[in-house]
Amino acid sequence: MKINQFIDHTILKATATKEDVKKLCDEAKEYGFYSVCVNGANVEYAFSQVKDSDVKVAAVVGFPLGAMATDVKVFEAKKAIEDGASEIDMVINIGALKDKDYDLVENEIRKIKEAIGSNVLKVIIETCYLTDDEKVKACELSVNAKADFVKTSTGFGTGGATFEDVELMKKTVGDKAEVKASGGVKDLETSKKYVELGATRLGTSSGIAIVTELKSGKTGY
Questions:
Q1: CB count in 10 Å sphere of residue 99
Q2: Contact assessment for residue 33 and residue 60, using Cβ atoms and an 8 Å cutoff
Q3: C-alpha to C-alpha distance for 140 and 171, rounded to whole angstroms
Q4: Cα–Cα distance, 24 to 8 (Å, whole number)
Q5: What is the mean predicted confidence (pLDDT) over 112-141?
Q6: Counting beta carbons within 10 angstroms of the beta carbon of residue 78, is it exposed (0 to 12), middle (13 to 18) or buried (19 or more)?
Q7: What does each C-alpha distance from 35 to 53, 65, 137, 158 come to in angstroms?
Q8: Is the pTM here over 0.85, yes or no?
């Protein structure tokens, strides 16, 4: 697989306009990125822009804090799928994880997965706020709840992906789920390292820079 096919081309900033989303979608089609990742309000429009291409639409849910009621997250996920998303990137209830309310965390993930069926569910565990033990637990709960991916970060926390976290997450989930590195993925060398460590998806707004760097003569992908 080429590096562009690992990339979820992302725009999640509060100020994103329709023009910004159109540009994102045009770029994703031009560079052959796997998907565009947008906020719920932009899903329907993004889908209208990529529906005649191979580019998927991913939508964030419970973003960026994860501190919404479960029923609200479930509704948000179902609405995004109805609007054209085929992938959901949800934020766990981080406070509940820290409270060791593991039933709440796992059941929430499971309910969202059940609500979206065969569509892809990525679980953002927001590693910057967690101890290594909590990261492992969050990954285990995600696997138990039948999530498709575990994901490092929203990009809105105090830190993004790290090599150590991706390695730990991959070791925990094994072949039971995939890993998405997100937050601070800005260059080709870093991207290649994440893939080597087991990430099968990269969330980034720097996809064009990464692919351009590759085309300029860097080898490996």
A1: 11
A2: no
A3: 11
A4: 11
A5: 98
A6: middle
A7: 10, 23, 28, 25
A8: yes
CB 199 within 8 A of CB 170: yes
| Tokens matching residue 33 | 């990125």
Q: Which two tokens stand for residue 199?
A: 């990430």
Average pLDDT over residues 183-207: 97
Which secondary-structure segment (H or E) carries 117? Answer: none
Element spanning 197, H or E: none
**Token pair 């291409």 in the structure block, residue:** 53
Would you state the structure tokens that stand for residue 86, as one six-digit string? 């085929």
pLDDT in tens, 23-58: 999 999 999 999 999 999 999 999 999 999 999 999
Cβ partners under 8 Å of residue 201, min gap 6 = 6, 7, 8, 34, 122, 149, 151, 178, 179, 180, 181
Q: What residues act catalytically?
A: 89, 151, 180
> Which DSSP symbol is given to 51?
T
Closest CA to 73 of 34, 100, 113: 113
Distance (Å, whole) CA 141 – CA 95:
15
